[in-house]
Amino acid sequence: MDVSVWAWAAVIGGLLIVLAIDLWIVDRGEPREFSLRQAGIWVGFYVTLAVLFGIGIWVVDSPTHAGQFFAGYLTEYSLSIDNLFVFYIIMSRFAVPKPYQHKVLLVGILIALVMRGIFIALGAAALANFSWLFYVFGLFLLYTAVGIIRQHGKEDDVSENVVLRWARRALPTTADYVGSKVTVKVDGRRMVTPMLIVMIAIGTTDLMFAIDSIPAIFGLTQDAFIVFTANAFALMGLRQLYFLLGGLLQRLVYISYGLAFILAFIGVKLILEALHSSGVSWAPTVPIWMSLTVIGVSMVVTTVASLLKARSDARKGDDVAASTSPNPSHQG
């Protein structure tokens, strides 16, 4: 897409305004837990916003670029579910009070969005100058897919990254949370609270996931504007999705298989298209409608299969409990 600097500025400005309004609405008054109803409304709002943006690309530019946006958005949103598992672990590890979790996620996601923007700019420039990187990205996605399958069922382990370790050492931190404040004065000395450390943890940990997801979306489109906006819309709706899914996260037992399949599919797509561009006649190109179909069907199938498995396990648990409980008719 041929996007002017003004269009970039308008889109980024619009996204920041929406996030600011979001934060103001949620944070006004006394801090409170995010209800399922609130989460559902906000998820619907951000998904609708993304759909309208994609339709806008269709009208103003072309159906091809609109299809690339929707495929990229679906991919990033799907891969973001993995982020939610890790966010849940971070929140538990730092014992973040529930009324403040939405603010932690919003600021952490803003940090992630800025860093992803830098990462996308570097990736777009590198791919434009070094076409062989498509092979590297494709193989990396296949390697990542295999890693996800091998990791399936194992305990998630969130190791502290370099930035987080530095923050812990360099910043004087209070022992406890002070409401939702990130800095406070203690005996005349300015200190940060654990709230800031958690925000850094969320933002920098998300960047680790970007190492997987950014190559994946570059496998669908090399347009930096589409890559950035698809990432932005996916991240913006991620916070509310965290509260909407809640305990459901633990029930999505097969979701990693769906994510692995999507990454493997895009990895193969990247390699085939790189071969095709190099003049290999037998290497086909994968149309965007096929990418959209594969991504959508994969997520629907693995989500439904996960929920059916959870329901089946719950029924088995009820049956076992019923069979082991004492029968009142035999007592006395």
Strand content: under 5%
Shape, per Cα inertia axes: globular
Number of spatially distinct domains: 1
Uncertain segments are none
Number of distinct helices: 11
The sequence of SSEs as H and E is HHHHHHEEHHHHH
Which structural class should the secondary elements be placed in? mainly alpha
Largest sheet data: 2 strands, antiparallel
The largest sheet has its strands arranged as 1-2
What is the terminal separation in angstroms? 80 Å
Kindly state the percentage of residues in helix.
over 70%
- Average pLDDT over all residues: 80
Describe what you observe in this structure.
This protein is mostly helical and 332 residues long. The protein has one domain. It has eleven helices and two strands. It has helices at residues 5-27, 36-60, 63-93, 101-129, 133-151, 162-170, 194-218, 224-236, 238-245, 255-277, 288-324, and strands at 183-186, 189-192. A two-stranded antiparallel sheet has the order 1-2. The longest helix has 37 residues, at 288-324. The mean pLDDT is 80.
Q: Care to give the gist of this entry?
A:
By secondary structure, the chain is mainly α. Helices cover about 75% and strands about 0% of the residues.
Please specify the SSE layout and strand pairing.
Blueprint: H1 5-27, H2 36-60, H3 63-93, H4 101-129, H5 133-151, H6 162-170, E1 183-186, E2 189-192, H7 194-218, H8 224-236, H9 238-245, H10 255-277, H11 288-324
Antiparallel strand pairs: 1-2
